Structures are given as structure tokens and as C-alpha cells.
């Protein structure tokens, strides 16, 4: 695999919610190329469009104008998104939640749970395996959501404020787990964050302001 293979490319990709007077432009014509080996932090204030940009990259939202092109080599399960908000399935325990994408991808329950346990261990959440989402804290749920993506070993990991609800030590552990997993599997990693210390651990930093992805040199 060439080191600089393009996984996702945004070409003037814009995302507008609502219409007419109610329209909110969450992302203005963004141009961005994510290649294998990418270690990108997207920083910016609340409401600047970070989650919207990740959702465009993930294919969760279709651009209102412009294009988002994903490499065919990614396949169906090539992108893993760690959601910013609650995303665990309430009826499944933490282990079953983390194993679910692998089960859906056709792995046996045993193999899926083995990978899920290893991923939970990486983020320091192994002891939560048997708990239901309602029995864990928001920060613990965030770690379980990160483990669910790591278990899947995607080629592109998109993590939306993965340390947002964590204390410093736990946040460091989750970020370590994301970086380690990305290094080990050769995955690209994009992390959104408010935290300059988190952003500093990624190789490239881009800022968003009012829906605009600023050019690299405009980093503040
Ligand atoms: N589903 C939606 N419907 C309408 N407006 C939305 C929707 N999702 C986001 N927005 C708006 O789009 C803009 C960008 O939101 P987004 O969630 O991308 O920001 P963010 O940078 O991730 O913020 P935060 O740091 O608080 O997570 C905001 O003005 C927000 O209110
Ligand atoms: Mg957000």
C-alpha cells in the first residue's frame, strides 16, 4: 500500500442544515485530503463545524454542495467514527456494544468479543465489559465507544472529541490507545478537540471557525 494513498477527499464540500431563513451553514466549502498515515487534529470553538466535518468524512451526512470522495479500498467497514455524544446501544452491555460492528461484519461472536475485550483493555475499560450503558458514566461510555471503533481496526479512525468528557489521565490513555492503534494497524487518524494539549499530540493541526476550515497557516 503506498504511504500516501488518499482515503477521503473533500472538494468544496459544504453542509447546510435547514432551509431559507433557518438555514445554518455548518461547513463552508471545505477542501481536505486524508491520506494513509494522516494524524490530523481539527480544533475550533463549539459550533464551528468540527462534528459536521467528521460526519461528512464518515459519509454520515451527504454534502449539500461539493463532493466527498471515499476510496473504494476502504470498503464497508473501513471508517470508524467515535461519536461525540452517547452512541452505545442501551440493551447491549459494553462488551456486546464493542463487538457489534465485528458481528455485523460477519465475524463469529467469540472472535468479535475477543477483539472487543482487547480494545476495552486498551482504553482502560475492561472492567466495564458486563455493564449496561445506563450503569456507566458519560466518560466511561466515551471510552467504550472508542473501544468499539478500535476493535473494528478501521483504516480511517475519526474521533469526535474523544477526550471531551474525560479527566486528564483517562483522556491521555484514550488518546494513547487511538495513536497506538493507528500506528499498529497503519490507520489514518482524525481527532477533533477543544484541547490544545490533545491537538499537540497529532502531527497536523487545522482550525475551524464559523464553519470554515482554515488553511494550515491560519492556525492560531
Ligand atoms: N442536525 C443539525 N441541525 C441543525 N443544525 C445543526 C445540526 N447539527 C449541527 N448544527 C449546527 O451546525 C453548526 C456546527 O455544529 P457542529 O456540531 O458541527 O459544531 P462543533 O464544532 O462540533 O461543536 P462542539 O464543539 O460543540 O461539538 C452549529 O451552528 C450547529 O448548531
Ligand atoms: Mg462537535
From TrEMBL:
- Which Gene3D superfamilies does this chain map to? P-loop containing nucleotide triphosphate hydrolases
Please tell me whether the keyword Nucleotide-binding is annotated for this protein.
yes
Which GO molecular function entries does the Swiss-Prot or TrEMBL record give?
ATP binding; ATP hydrolysis activity; transmembrane transporter activity
Give the highest taxon in the source lineage: Bacteria
Q: What are its GO cellular component terms?
A: plasma membrane
| Keyword Nucleotide-binding part of the UniProt annotation | yes
Every copy of the ABC transporter domain together lies at: 8-219
Pfam families per the UniProt record, alphabetical: ABC_tran (PF00005)
Q: Which UniProt keywords apply?
A: ATP-binding, Nucleotide-binding
The record's PANTHER family line, in alphabetical order, gives: ABC TRANSPORTER RELATED, IMPORT ATP-BINDING PROTEIN
Indicate what this protein is called per its UniProt record.
ABC transporter ATP-binding protein
The record lists the organism as Streptomyces collinus (strain DSM 40733 / Tue 365)
Amino acid at each position: 500500500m503506498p504511504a500516501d494513498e488518499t482515503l477521503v477527499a473533500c472538494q468544496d464540500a459544504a453542509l447546510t442544515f435547514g432551509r431559507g431563513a433557518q438555514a445554518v451553514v455548518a461547513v463552508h466549502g471545505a477542501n481536505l485530503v486524508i491520506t494513509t498515515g494522516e494524524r490530523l487534529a481539527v480544533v475550533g470553538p463549539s459550533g464551528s463545524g468540527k462534528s459536521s466535518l467528521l460526519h461528512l468524512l464518515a459519509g454520515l451526512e451527504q454534502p449539500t454542495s461539493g463532493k466527498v470522495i471515499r476510496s473504494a479500498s476502504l470498503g464497508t467497514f473501513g471508517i470508524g467514527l467515535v461519536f461525540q455524544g452517547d452512541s452505545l446501544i442501551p440493551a447491549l452491555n459494553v462488551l456486546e456494544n464493542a463487538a457489534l460492528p465485528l458481528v455485523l461484519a460477519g465475524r463469529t461472536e467469540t472472535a468479535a468479543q475477543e477483539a472487543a475485550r482487547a480494545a476495552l483493555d486498551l482504553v482502560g475499560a475492561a472492567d466495564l465489559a458486563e455493564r449496561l450503558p445506563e450503569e456507566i458514566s458519560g466518560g466511561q461510555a466515551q471510552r467504550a465507544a472508542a473501544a468499539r471503533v478500535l476493535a473494528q481496526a478501521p483504516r480511517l479512525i475519526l474521533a469526535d472529541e474523544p477526550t471531551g468528557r474525560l479527566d486528564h489521565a483517562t483522556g491521555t490513555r484514550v488518546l494513547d490507545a487511538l495513536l497506538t492503534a493507528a500506528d499498529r494497524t497503519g490507520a489514518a487518524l482524525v481527532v477533533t478537540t477543544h484541547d490544545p494539549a490533545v491537538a499537540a499530540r497529532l502531527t497536523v493541526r487545522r482550525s475551524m471557525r464559523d464553519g470554515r476550515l482554515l488553511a494550515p497557516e491560519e492556525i492560531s
